[in-house]
Design brief:
Radius of gyration of chain A: 20 Å
Largest sheet of chain B: 2 strands, antiparallel
Distance between the termini of chain B: 93 Å
CATH architecture of the largest domain in chain B: Orthogonal Bundle
Radius of gyration of chain B: 30 Å
Shape of chain A: globular
Number of strands of chain B: 2
Structural class of chain B: mainly alpha
Order of helices and strands of chain B: HHEEHHHHHHHHHH
Oligomer: heterodimer
Distance between the termini of chain A: 70 Å
Shape of chain B: elongated
Helix content of chain A: under 10%
Number of domains of chain B: 2
Largest sheet of chain A: 5 strands, mixed
């Protein structure tokens, strides 16, 4: 009887902490100033890719949306995350399509396995350039199976294809799964945060990082907004 | 007696018995001070410009000599024994701290290897793994053609083994990781025109020509954009240069060429093809690459001469006719 009660209490605590008091941090990432002009990419040297784009795509160093929204910003819990060390098992993919990386920034947990896929009719070489993790460089011709990889240290890693020099992307290897990458409207959402104090960091490949501290006390949604100072160069 | 104004001020300050005030000091303080300051700035600028290196601030950190070892055959190398050899022969380019910041490094292209990353070009192991001691030992003895790394065949084997151990002190990877497993290279099949033809098809399909050029002359469409992992411009290998003496960076045997594309050249744009080329295909590619060395006398070029210098289009016997277009049309 007593064991049953304790089990029930434990279960309630577990459910309670994860559902009833799950806070959310959400907000928008915007910029002030003039963002860098993105140049159209000339893919004429790779016709199989060029024909996939009706209008030439541009570089993606700074991608913006309406109302000064800033895209491709990785927003994550940099301190206080309750899940550090819990490696998610779901597969995430990084696709090369039309000689572009989709997504442009792939966020992942340390040691989480991810698949690199070549959807093009041309060979790519995937050449991430880590400083902390170990560097490798692999060829992936069309029709070959996905390359499975993982990184064991947190780092923002630039990714290049040497064959198609315009291809640039990033891996954001984080110690947590509480992350989001801002989309077209610049918005992000970090749900399922139990009560506690957190540091939220926003990282942009050109404009650097910003942090904000939040305290979640219960079942609430905290608004956190980040504004980056955009420079044209 | 005439005195210049500055002298007057000196005189008044020194001999008139007046108490020195800030006001009385001002002119004589500023004139020599600004002159000295100007000299210092000019001298400092000159030093910086000509030395091409910022003067070091503060004491240099000590080099931590770890008890690293290397094993090549029955020779055991010890890091401690290579200390003076490294300082005398290697540090000038690779730097005291192995970070490729030696005083000659600024003048070199390609740049010296940075031992702190522990990424090496010539390996028998897969991309991203540490090379074997033997790989490093061979690199020192062979030198790196098309770079400033000389052939260190004046060293004894023991000296080279000691140096292999020494360069391990610069990266913590050598303490936590084991060297990769060398790839297995199957015995080389006979050189035939079919093998060369298949190799050419692979060269096209795997887009080797995008950098190395359609004739292996290092002039592919992406060649001019290439940079190494430190963002320094780098050239793809030109197979056509040189005659019988033309050398590859990581060794001149057919096995060495096989290793290059299967392991990749880490730190450069050259990727690993280990996951995408079958072992028997790899030999065909080696045979074709040899024919790109147009001025070299070798078995491959003889076979090509016997076929009147024409490489026939490759026909994959395993593929259904319907899929033929797909294989022969790739790339070029």
């Amino acid at each position: 009887m007593r064991t049953k009660q304790m089990l029930l209490a434990f279960l309630m605590l577990l459910v309670g902490s994860s559902l009833m008091f799950a806070g959310t941090v959400s907000g928008k990432v915007t910029y002030t100033g003039t963002p860098a002009h993105q140049k159209p990419i000339d893919m004429s040297k790779e016709p199989s890719c060029a024909k996939q784009h009706a209008t030439p795509v541009t570089t993606e160093t700074v991608v913006t949306g309406a109302n000064n929204a800033l895209d491709n910003v990785v927003v994550y819990v940099s301190a206080g995350a309750p899940d550090e060390g819990q490696v998610p098992t779901q597969a995430i993919t990084y696709t090369q399509k039309g000689c572009q990386y989709i997504p442009h920034v792939l966020a992942m947990h340390v040691n989480q396995e991810f698949d690199i896929i070549n959807d093009d009719q041309t060979s790519h070489n995937i050449h991430p350039l880590p400083k902390v993790n170990i560097e490798w460089n692999k060829s992936q011709p069309p029709g070959t199976p996905p390359i499975k990889e993982k990184y064991d240290k947190p780092e923002f890693i630039e990714v290049k294809c040497n064959i198609h020099p315009w291809m640039h992307g990033y891996f954001a290897v984080l110690k947590t799964s509480h992350y989001d990458v801002s989309k077209e409207a610049g918005d992000f959402k970090l749900p399922n945060l139990p009560p506690g104090k957190y540091t939220i960091t926003a990282w942009h490949e050109k404009y650097g990082t910003q942090t904000a501290d939040v305290t979640i006390t219960g079942n609430e949604t905290k608004d956190v907004n980040f504004t980056f100072k955009a420079t044209p160069y | 007696m005439r005195m210049n104004p500055l002298a007057t001020r000196f005189a008044s300050a020194d001999f008139s018995g007046r108490v020195l005030t800030m006001n009385s000091l001002k002119p004589m303080r500023w004139i020599p001070c600004s002159a000295i300051l100007g000299l210092v700035v000019v001298a400092g600028f000159a030093v910086r410009t000509f030395a091409q290196d910022a003067p070091d601030v503060g004491p240099k950190p000590r080099i931590v000599l770890k008890p690293m070892e290397s094993h090549i055959g029955n020779i055991t190398g010890h890091a401690a024994d290579a200390k003076s050899d490294y300082r005398r022969y290697c540090a000038g380019c690779h730097g005291d701290y192995g970070d490729a910041n030696g005083e000659n490094a600024v003048w070199l292209d390609p740049k010296p290897r940075d031992f702190t990353t522990a990424a090496f070009k010539c390996r028998s192991t897969l991309t991203g793994t540490l090379p074997t001691d033997e790989d490093l030992f061979n690199t020192i003895g062979r030198g790196l053609t098309n770079s400033n790394m000389p052939v260190w065949n004046t060293f004894t084997k023991q000296q080279r083994a000691d140096l292999v151990a020494y360069i391990k002190i610069f990266s913590p990877r050598w303490e936590h990781e084991k060297a990769g497993t060398p790839i297995t290279i199957p015995p080389e099949p006979p050189i035939t025109i079919e093998s060369i033809s298949h190799g050419k098809a692979l060269f096209t399909k795997l887009e080797c020509w995008k950098c190395h050029g359609p004739h292996g002359e290092g002039d592919g469409p992406s060649a001019s954009t290439l940079t190494d992992s430190k963002d320094n411009p780098i050239r793809p290998y030109n197979f056509a240069l040189g005659g019988n003496d033309s050398r590859f960076k990581c060794g001149n045997t057919n096995q060495d060429i096989y290793k290059i594309f299967m392991t990749g050249v880490d730190g450069t744009p050259m990727p690993s093809f280990a996951d995408v080329i079958q072992p028997n295909e790899a030999w065909d590619l080696v045979h074709f690459l040899r024919t790109l060395q147009v001025h070299r006398h070798g078995k491959e070029n003889e076979v090509l001469m016997d076929a009147h210098g024409v490489i026939p289009p490759y026909v994959d016997k395993n593929l259904a006719p319907a899929a033929d277009n797909k294989t022969s049309g790739g790339g070029q």
